[in-house]
Amino acid sequence: MDSAIECFTFALNSLGYAARPSDFRDMTERHSLKQIGPADIFGSHVPGYERLFPTLAAHWKESRSLIQTIADNHDVSKHREAVFLGGQASRQAAPAGFFERLGITDHAQKLLVTPMEEIIISRDPKAPRTARSSTPREEQVRLEDVAQDFKRFIEQTCALALTDAKANIHLEFTELQR
């Protein structure tokens, strides 16, 4: 999820830079490329997003909490520790095709890799371990919910990017020329 958000940010910066170079991060400068990130879209760092992708920028601002949850959990799980806190240990039955996709045919192996029913992740994974306390059930963050929210977020992002680009990026040619 985090990588998709990062890649989409780079793609939009590239498109914006092609249309209005002065309003986006310079695609020809190494230092500038290192600065590209989601905050460019929902923050005020790069003015081009408000000009060329205004509805998308508004959507990302509304989704900032989701984006931050995804980024924080990715950062911590990649660089420090697991973010898994608990959940429902195993499902009654694995989804259709689950074991086949993993190449598992042995019954004993299936018992070892039965997928979880629910995965609880940290609400604040960057907090020191000693500062963490148990979280009431209603405040827990379920990975399954984050995944569904992300699905809606990225689908809407794609639709808004296309709508904004069509409305605000004027092309000399709109069809392939022979």
Question: Your description of this structure?
Answer:
By secondary structure, this protein is mainly alpha-helical. The protein has a 3-stranded antiparallel β-sheet. It is built from 9 helices and 3 strands; from the N terminus they run H-H-H-H-H-H-E-H-H-E-E-H. The protein has 2 domains: 1-80 and 143-171, no CATH class; 84-121, no CATH class. The longest helix is centred in the C-terminal third of the chain and has 26 residues, at 143-168. The mean pLDDT is 85. Helix 5 (54-62) runs antiparallel to helix 9 (143-168).
Strand arrangement across the biggest beta sheet: 1-2-3
Strand % is 5-15%
- What is the radius of gyration? 21 Å
Structural class: mainly alpha
Low-confidence stretches: none
**SSE ordering:** HHHHHHEHHEEH
Biggest sheet statistics? 3 strands, antiparallel
Number of contiguous helices: 9
What's the overall average pLDDT, rounded? 85
